[in-house]
Design a protein that fits this description.
The chain is an alpha+beta fold. 35% of the residues lie in helices and 24% in strands. The protein has 22 helices and 30 strands. The termini are far apart. The structure holds one DNA strand.
DNA sequence: GCAAGGTC
């Protein structure tokens, strides 16, 4: 018999062919797609790897003019299935192979989407062949062999459940996206989007922002002591937070009566910190985003490292290494990496006992290195991510970190104080995973009855802090907790919110338009509480319906009809309030785009305008009545800068360039205030000021303010904050500057003239340095 | 030019 095995991806196809053929399969190209062939037990096998969902749902072309199809019509329109244009060849290969087969075995991932991926591809290929299903939970020899020895039926109900999700996501997403965009006049590139995952995620960010805004800080007081016994150390009042200032003062003044602290009970404890758990996608992203990479970037790099054979599959929920994974073999491979010494140390342990996390799934193993690598073969971000994954892997196999914890009670003027020491005795896993800062505190030797000199008693007012904003990492963790998105899609939903300018910042905050969209939907799209579309519960409700379909307790048409009815009701309410919603969003966008009030006319706002050549400038919104305009710096993000210039009263802007801390300066480049901030030094030719200028290609250079009379210019380091020194180079007369760069402790001091005779003397080293900039 | 879900 000729049997066709359909897999979810090419990697899985290769693996399955390898296992079933004992390594003897041959690769043939069918319509440009590899099909793996082998014979076994008088059967001929063809194995084909799909690429996820190669069949996609979309509305027919005639509904694609947003202005012509009212959103509510979209709700009941029938979407059509089409082949992903980039997967046409795979579909052709599937058709051709189906024609030459007698039976199909669906061997996609063992989950709801996997069921549909196989079924929809075969359906679209027009297959009439008998179908079987292989269900395996890991691509290991034993598991794959068992699954193929024990073939089952395809679960069409499960596939239908996944298909229902597609229909509902499309209908809600497309109709509400179009409604919001039409209502606010945001068409083309600037459309406003709504979706089952992205909108509740945005709502989480907005809710957080509201709670920060509503937060009322409560003051409290803490009393501390600076002490000395040989060396200096600190203690704090045992009461902790004092709610009343008078109480804190009383305690402090009683403590101040004496210069001697008497040591009371001493408690000694061994602190044990167990190694962190293996990486699943969520934890990996949380850690990667702490290194300053966005979640989407981290995922992209990880996918590249996976396809290049450096790390394992990066999309997994699993935090427990399966027993089939040879941890020792991986460590041995790391011998050829730049982390070979660390790997060797971990290998030298008598036994390898990996840590394990709470989520145990069988989809894929936790993310781990599969090959050694050196810093020189992996550049920049790729090395950062590889090193993170590898160090995490090493850490999960390393011993616990052990520390000496000391708790010393002290009596100062009858007031109880406590001093806590924490010293690492053996770093264990921390040695291999040095990303967390540890605050070690060492205390001088003391025993009960000893005394210490009181240097100072402090009493400080503090305030309770508002909740902190999400970072990309903490938000993705929160999304996982709320059931929003999947391991493969959360970073994409988040990136969308940034791309649509609904949110901004490293500490993520909503923009005006983000808040306006959520407010509009909360106010007008909450007909049915269980279908409040800004609420993460909507996903939970959908999950429930899909489970019912999978169990055969509900039918797809009923669920779709019910969902459509609700959506139509919601769109009706939205349509009735269309003008108000549109006005609110427009107002928010105007505020969001404003760089500040125009200082020349009282009515206008300065907004960023794109000129003919792609250059941007700030122009007054009252144009042509007011023609006030300012050039804006090129190649960087320009944001409103809060407040107005102390020198000229024009608004301030904030410029953000990659890898640099933001700079706030006057919007008017001719203003003395702005000029002073951009000053580089004195021009050696004419004595005028040289200021930092952004070129057309966004390169930074120093130009003379007497341009065009004086054409003196120098290239500048592209990164870092430039501080003039008032000094001139004794060799060439060019200004000497200091450059503060991120993560460097000391500034870099240099003459800005690249052709300076002194620099030539220094030879290669200086040359190299400048090339790096 | 819409969503979310797979995968590259």
């Amino acid at each position: 018999m000729r049997r066709l095995i359909v897999c979810e991806k090419s990697h899985a196809a290769r693996r399955i062919a390898l296992i079933l053929s004992n390594g003897s399969y041959k690769t043939q190209s069918v319509a440009g797609t590899p099909v793996l062939r082998f014979a076994k037990d008088s059967d001929e096998y063809s194995v084909l790897g799909l690429r996820g969902h190669i069949v996609e749902l979309d509305y027919p072309d005639e509904l694609n003019d947003w202005e012509k199809t009212p959103p509510r019509e979209l709700v009941e329109a029938e979407p059509v299935k089409g082949v992903d244009p980039s997967a046409k060849k795979i579909m052709r290969a599937l058709r051709e192979t189906v024609a030459k087969s007698d039976e199909v075995i669906v061997a996609t991932d063992y989950d709801r989407e996997g069921e549909l991926i196989g079924v929809e591809a075969l359906e679209h290929a027009g297959s009439k062949l008998p179908v079987k299903r292989a269900r395996f939970s890991a691509l290991t020899k034993a598991e794959v062999e068992r699954a193929f020895a024990d073939l089952v039926e395809v679960d069409y109900k499960l596939a239908t459940a996944a298909e229902t999700r597609q229909y509902i996501d499309l209908a809600w997403g497309a109709s509400l996206t179009r409604f919001m965009s039409l209502a606010s006049g945001q068409m083309g590139n600037d459309f406003l989007s709504v979706g089952r995952v992205q909108t509740p995620t945005l709502a989480l960010i907005v809710a957080k922002e509201r709670s920060i805004r509503e937060f009322k800080p409560i003051p409290y007081w803490v009393v501390g002591a600076d002490l000395r016994r040989g060396s200096e150390f600190k203690a704090s009042h045992s009461h902790g937070k004092f709610e009343e200032k008078t109480e804190a003062r009383g305690a402090a003044s009683r403590a101040r009566r004496t210069k001697e602290a008497v040591v009371g009970d001493i408690e000694l404890k061994e602190g044990v910190e167990y190694p962190p758990c293996p990486f699943n996608t969520t934890i990996f992203l949380a850690e990667a985003t702490k290194r300053g990479i966005t979640a989407a970037q981290a995922m992209k790099i990880a996918e590249g490292l996976y396809t290049d054979g450096y790390i394992s599959y990066p999309r997994t929920d699993n935090t427990v290494y399966p027993p089939s994974l040879s941890l020792k073999a991986i460590l041995e491979k790391l011998r050829r990496s730049d982390l070979s010494e660390e790997a060797e140390e971990v290998l030298s342990q008598e036994t390898l006992r990996p840590s394990r996390g709470r989520s145990f799934t069988t989809d894929h193993p936790p993310i781990h290195p599969v090959e050694g690598a050196t810093k020189s073969e992996l550049k920049g971000g790729r090395w950062t991510v590889y090193e993170l994954v590898t160090r995490r892997f090493l850490a999960t196999l390393a011993p616990a970190c052990r520390s000496k914890k000391t708790r010393v009670e002290l009596n100062i003027g009858e007031e109880p104080f406590v001093s806590e020491g924490d010293e690492i005795v053996s770093p264990g896993w921390r040695k291999y995973y040095p990303y967390y800062r540890v605050n070690e505190v060492s205390l001088p030797e003391m025993k009960t009855g000893d005394s210490a000199e009181v240097l100072r008693i402090t009493s400080a007012e503090k305030k309770t802090q508002p909740p902190s904003r999400f970072s990309q990492g903490t938000l993705i963790q929160e999304m996982e907790k709320m059931g929003l998105g999947t391991k493969s899609t959360r970073h994409e939903a988040l990136q969308k919110l940034f791309d649509r300018r609904f949110v901004k910042g490293q500490r993520i905050e909503p923009t005006e338009s983000g808040i306006a969209v959520i407010s509009a939907l909360e106010d007008h799209a909450r007909l049915h509480d269980e279908y409040k579309i800004t609420d993460a519960k909507m996903t939970a409700h959908l999950e429930l319906e899909m489970d019912l379909i999978a169990k055969g307790e509900r039918e797809q048409p009923d669920v779709l009809e019910e969902s459509q009815a609700m959506l139509v009701d919601i769109i009706d309410v939205l349509e009735r309030n269309k003008k108000e919603i549109g006005d609110d969003i427009r107002k928010a966008l105007k505020k969001q785009r404003s760089l500040g009030k125009c200082p020349q006319c009282d009515s206008g706002e300065l907004v960023e305008i794109r000129g003919k050549g792609g250059d941007t400038f700030a122009g007054c919104s009252s144009y042509p009545a007011c023609r006030n305009a300012y050039p804006l710096p090129r190649g960087m993000l320009v944001l409103p800068g809060e407040g107005s210039c102390e020198v000229c009263g024009a608004p301030k802007i904030k410029t953000v360039s990659k890898g640099q801390s933001p700079v706030v300066l006057c919007i008017d480049p001719k203003c003395d205030g702005a000029r002073k901030q951009r000053l580089v030094g004195k021009c050696p030719d004419c004595g005028g000021d040289m200021i930092s200028i952004q070129s057309r290609k966004a390169k930074r250079f120093a130009g003379c303010t007497n341009y065009p009379e004086c054409k003196r210019m120098y290239p500048l380091p592209q990164r870092g904050r430039i501080v003039p020194t008032e000094e001139a180079c004794d060799a060439c007369g060019a200004p000497i500057i200091k450059v503060w760069q991120a993560r460097r402790k000391a500034p870099w001091v240099l003459c800005i003239n690249m052709d300076c005779p002194k620099r030539q003397e220094k030879g290669e080293r200086a040359d190299k340095k400048s090339k790096n900039e």
